[in-house]
Amino acid sequence: MKILIIRLSSIGDVLLTTPILRCIKSQLGDVEIHYLTKPHIASLLEPNPYIDKLKVLSPTLSNTIDELKKEHYDYVVDLHNNHRSRRIRMSLRVPSSVYRKDNLDKFCMVLFKTKCLSHRHVVDRYFGAVKRLGVTDDDKGLDCFLPKNIDVASFQPSSQLYTVIACGAQHYTKQIPVERLEKLCSNIEGPVMLLGDKNDFNRIESSGMEMGSNVYNLCGKTSIVELAALVRDAAVVVTPDTAIMHIAAAFERPVVAIWGATDPLFGFSAFRCKHVDFVAEGLRCHPCSRMGGKKCPRKHFKCMQQQDWNKIYTTVNELLKA
Q1: Alpha-carbon span 35 to 67, nearest angstrom
Q2: What is the pLDDT of residues 169-203, one digit of tens each?
Q3: HSE-up of 26 (CA within 13 Å, CB side)?
Q4: Are 171 and 294 spatial neighbours (Cβ–Cβ below 8 Å)?
Q5: If phi over 0 gives left and psi between -120 and 50 gives alpha, with beta otherwise, what is residue 282?
Q6: What are 17-32's pLDDT values in tens digits?
Q7: Contact between residue 212 and residue 186 where contact means Cβ atoms under 8 Å apart
Q8: Which of 18, 112, 223, 258 would bridge with 143, disulfide CB 3.0–4.6 Å?
Q9: How far are the Cα atoms of 35, 114, 180, 313 from residue 219, in angstroms, in the given order?
Q10: All domains of the chain, ordered by start, with CATH?
Q11: C-alpha count within 13 angstroms, C-beta hemisphere, residue 151
């Protein structure tokens, strides 16, 4: 049986599909799994032993569909369920199943602040898409496989446990404000490693943030695979609602999650690893978005500014000692 799994983006969402791959492979026996995603995510999936062939999305969707038709799939599992994945799935004309989103319930929670969600994690909802195949969750969490030759020793402090802080996120209203980031670094015991992309590096540099000798700003200086390896070796990972949270969960690193515009009730919290969620209390405007936005609708960004930062520092240091 040849199965195509579709999850085009983003990095965190793709990692959240990895239990599906493992369980299909182990429970269905003679099965060949192909996985379709975007090119920039491919390096994180290439070492995955449960994927027989990795497919990347072409700039032209019709070219992607033509290539996929040549494979003659027996079944398609659409774990993205957007306009592109639907077009691909329908064009292949084979039996399929789809991940059902809770967008209406999320919209109600954002608009009316009513907690009508099922509280099911997105991974549990992904398993709903393979129920027809007889595949069930094995309770083993996420996977993140790295190349055997990956070497990040040159980035790491010598012989010391370190804390990783994810500096950015795709959307502004999920990012840790720079002034809070500065105080966070100064209150965490031991080395602190800042991870993110070039935009995060520029944001920190342009802010004039003062960094102590214990802080290593590696934003924009690593590949995604190197970043994952640094997260793997961390003692504690501090992160907003972003991909680094799910990388940490895959390696069972303790996670301190700081939630801005979004909420863990949406089902995207750290999966099956030790984690502590921090959500600012008493805000009538929270959550304000399903995925985050370019700016705070109320212009005060209280969901980040009014976090219990003292408790966050204390929690991180307690996890370090443990």
Answers
A1: 13
A2: 989 999 999 999 999 999 999 999 999 999 999 99
A3: 11
A4: yes
A5: left
A6: 999 999 999 999 899 9
A7: yes
A8: 18
A9: 29, 37, 17, 21
A10: 2-133 (3.40.50.2000), 153-321 (3.40.50.2000)
A11: 2
